[in-house]
DNA sequence: TTTTGTATTATGTCACACATATAAAAGTAC
DNA sequence: GTACTTTTATATGTGTGACATAATACAAAA
């Protein structure tokens, strides 16, 4: 009889570099290393771990790639604060994200805009409002009475909002979302571009600005939700696997 | 007089590996390579670019680190879909994020929870509601009448919400936010843990569930906002640089 | 036809050499 | 002593060639 092999589990198949990387992470924790601390040199690591310089270099290069360490000739290496957004960015640059991931990210953007109302109201300044006012006036002038969906205008207006949030991570996140936004927009059917708002629901940039001036976070959330209606309509109608 | 050199721009100070990496990116775009496509072998790249295998390997390793390519012995390399969240995760694992970044990320989480109401209402299922009901009942039982802030309970409940969003990126994002959440929570002063809600404002998990059952997105947003009141209070009171 | 062995091949690891940038030391002028 | 320049030492960056290893294709055996 032929016995089944369902129970036996594969022995872990880590490359030498993988192991070294894990070991390095341990090392950092054990020694409680902080940002700015300098590291032993490559050769010392190699010797201490009993591997070639090639291997330790590859492991360190991984860390350098995700921004955990920086290296300079002669000075050696130091621990640095990783830039999480930059990592994000790098992955996106290669245009290899699948449809689902792009939709997910697009949804994320909608969520952020609706959700960030409290931050805006807590941190808005007089100058912010004035700057936003100028932006809205310019948009209105260019639209010239026609309410058309203009990607350029959208971006200008909403970028300013993100900036007002005073949350750098959020801000940079939005910068990097723009290409995705672009992609989803280009892919948009004509029907969506000429979206008909439900009666009385249309919220213009001017409306949003006015709420930001005199209203409260709650009203702003609902207004933004309606402002983004066409986009919500679009993603919420998708059947997800 | 010593002339200022503010305008002159530094000649590009890119390492050979940097240049090769850029060249590779170009190559991918020019040839319109897609996920799953296989790449020439290291030696061919090295020869074509006129660099050593060491250099091309380091450039490729960077791509491997951010998840743009995968390599296997003998089979060579193929393009893969980068996992943006994983990149994020790796950077966080090293506990090197500064205070500001952590606060930014914590704020992000608050924004997401308030903003994701529409997704929840569009995608909730009968099973989701039942599962959530069980979770709430369990929490209530353990709380035994006392409304204490329990990180464990918070996580269980809110994780389920993220799961209901049916947005995998969002879900994984939250998984990875937990350590940050933990950190910020541990750092919380006792006063915040015993936060007194404004009169009539307290929203329990049960309240949220009920709205999710019979209410609408708008109500849910406001309820969630109040549910998270102590956290909002905390971050919005911070003076940011 | 299915299994098992074998050759091939692209990546993984190694050792060693040399290039290059630069921090630190030594030297120089004032 | 101070300010500046030159030299030197050194850690990372790059190059070369070799061998190890695992995955694949293919042949041989059952």
Strands in their spatial order, largest beta sheet of chain A: 1-3-2
Overall, the morphology of chain A is: elongated
Q: What is the number of helices of chain A?
A: 13
| CATH superfamily descriptor of the largest domain in chain A | GntR ligand-binding domain-like
Oligomer: homodimer
Using the CA coordinates, give the radius of gyration of chain A: 25 Å
Question: How would you sum up the major sheet of chain A?
Answer: 3 strands, antiparallel
Distance between the termini of chain A: 41 Å
| CATH-defined architecture of the largest domain in chain A | Up-down Bundle
Total domain count of chain A: 2
CATH top level label of the largest domain in chain A: Mainly Alpha
Mean pLDDT of chain A: 87
How much strand of chain A? under 5%
CATH topology name of the largest domain in chain A: Four Helix Bundle (Hemerythrin (Met), subunit A)
| Share of helix of chain A, binned | 55-70%
The chain pair with the largest interface is: A-B, 62 and 62 residues
Listing every helix as H and every strand as E from the N terminus to the C terminus, the arrangement of chain A reads: HEHHEEHHHHHHHHHH
Low-confidence stretches of chain A: 1-5
| Coarse structural class of chain A | mainly alpha
């Amino acid at each position: 009889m032929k016995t089944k092999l369902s129970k036996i589990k594969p022995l872990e198949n880590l490359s030498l570099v993988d192991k070294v990387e894990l070991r390095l992470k341990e090392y950092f924790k054990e020694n409680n290393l902080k940002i700015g601390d300098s590291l032993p040199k490559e050769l010392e690591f190699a010797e201490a771990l009993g591997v070639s310089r090639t291997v330790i270099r590859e492991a360190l290069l991984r860390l350098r790639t995700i921004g955990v360490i920086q290296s300079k000739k002669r000075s050696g290496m130091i621990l640095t604060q990783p830039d999480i957004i930059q990592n994000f960015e790098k992955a996106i640059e290669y245009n290899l994200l699948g449809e689902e991931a792009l939709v997910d990210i697009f949804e994320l953007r909608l969520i952020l805009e609706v959700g960030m109302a409290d931050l805006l109201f807590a941190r808005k300044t007089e100058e912010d409002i004035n700057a936003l006012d100028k932006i809205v006036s310019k948009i209105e002038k260019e639209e010239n009475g026609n309410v058309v969906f203009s990607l350029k205008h959208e971006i200008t207006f909403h970028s300013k909002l993100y900036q007002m949030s005073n949350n750098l991570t959020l801000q940079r996140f939005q910068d990097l979302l723009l290409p995705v936004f672009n992609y989803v927009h280009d892919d948009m059917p004509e029907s969506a571009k000429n979206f008909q708002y439900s009666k009385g629901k249309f919220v213009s940039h001017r409306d949003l600005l006015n709420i930001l001036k005199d209203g409260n976070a709650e009203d702003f959330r609902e207004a933004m939700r309606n402002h983004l209606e066409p986009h919500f309509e679009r993603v919420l109608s998708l059947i997800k696997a």
